[in-house]
Amino acid sequence: MTETLDIKITKTTHSRLAETDFDNLPFGKTFSDHMFVADYADGEWKNLQVIPYGEIGLSPAISALHYGQAFFEGLKAYKHADGKVTIFRPDKNAIRFNKSAERLCMPQLPEEIFLQSMAAVVDIDRDWVPSKDNHALYIRPFMFATDPYLGVTPSATYKYMVIAGPVGPYFSKTLRVKIETHYTRAAEGGMGFAKAAGNYGSSMLPARKATEEGFDQLIWTDAKEHKYIEEMGAANAMFVLDGTLVTAEAKDTILDGVTRDTVIALAKEWGIPVETRKVSVAEIIEGAKNGKLTDAFGAGTAATIASVGSISLDGEEYFLNDPKTREFSQKVLKTLDAIKYGNAADTHGWNYLVG
Ligand SMILES: Cc1ncc(COP(=O)(O)O)c(C=O)c1O
Question: In angstroms, what CA-CA distances link 293 with 45, 162, 246?
């Protein structure tokens, strides 16, 4: 048994729940009543608190704002038919959280603080977890440097926080994606494997350009040659090519997705061959042309399983089969939903019970 942490709880006196429209939940715009805050100073985490969601005062000199010592995680809590609320595989995010911290020269966060901070927010705000299909409470833990000091050096103080909010599906349609062959998301030796805020900042200009060209997402390629597929926006790119599930190996340029890991585990159980390796743009385009590419999707917590309808390369658009006819991704989606919402046995121990 891990120790139960001493978390001070201050409840809101003005819940916003009644005035929240659960039928209209654009991703990431609605926040629940409470949040978690802890401070790091003198080598330890202290002042563990749940407080009403709201603004926080910060010095304009905090190094997170200037030098980007900031990173985050993204998870979801689901409501089951019997009212239970569970978070999906938070132990995996706890490990990734500390990998990000290490890469950014920031302090480690004990796993019990990560898990219990989220559980505390989700528990107090359990009425904010939507009961509708394809809906969940999105949980955003994050850490940032708070030293009010403009020297380029790791901060000595940090804040760890958790905010949350109800969300519906991130993508409501089949995606039109473009293979990016100019801009780069991450290079070897960089921080692509970390959920660093800076990785997302640098992706915005290329993503905006792609949107202006009518695309929904970018497929990132390797920094050296732009010949190998890495990721798809804020999701891992996965393909079924000639009956094999193929996806890029989770190396230092790629975020090792929890959804990716889950999809791979299910595929292996179902006896489907899995290859995690370099995936060339050429073989994917070839597969799209000759019909051997029978499935293509982005896998992520927010994106869930987001079907790719067409892939464009150098101005040429290659259309794929109808997503509804895709055996693999349809089965993955159904199975994952059944486990997350408690409609199938959680034989892997993926659901973390809150409360
Ligand atoms: C860049 C990137 N890749 C992959 C993923 C998928 O990871 P996960 O399945 O853990 O959510 C995400 C986000 O969630 C992401 O931001």
Answer: 49, 40, 10
